[in-house]
């Protein structure tokens, strides 16, 4: 969810719940925990004061960036262990993987 907020900006609880395929009450519990950790903020939506906008904080953005760096380093190390044929097969699969990642 932090990644979604860093990539797409502010969101509502309902939109986040739909994106993550969970119920709004479940998403509310997750949001509450992330607010308590200082990773996201709740505020009145600029478009409609009755709605709550959920945004990522600088600490949340930093956590996402550090997580991506660690994951990229791990993945690069794992790729280096593959033989050339396996690396070529992965290279050919990149367009399909990108399509799946965007959905």
From TrEMBL:
Keywords: DNA-binding, Transcription, Transcription regulation. Residues 1-99 form the HTH marR-type domain. InterPro entries: HTH-type_Bedaq_tolerance (IPR052526), HTH_MarR-typ (IPR000835), Tscrpt_reg_MarR-type_CS (IPR023187), WH-like_DNA-bd_sf (IPR036388), WH_DNA-bd_sf (IPR036390). Coiled coil: none annotated. This is HTH marR-type domain-containing protein. It comes from Rhodoglobus aureus.
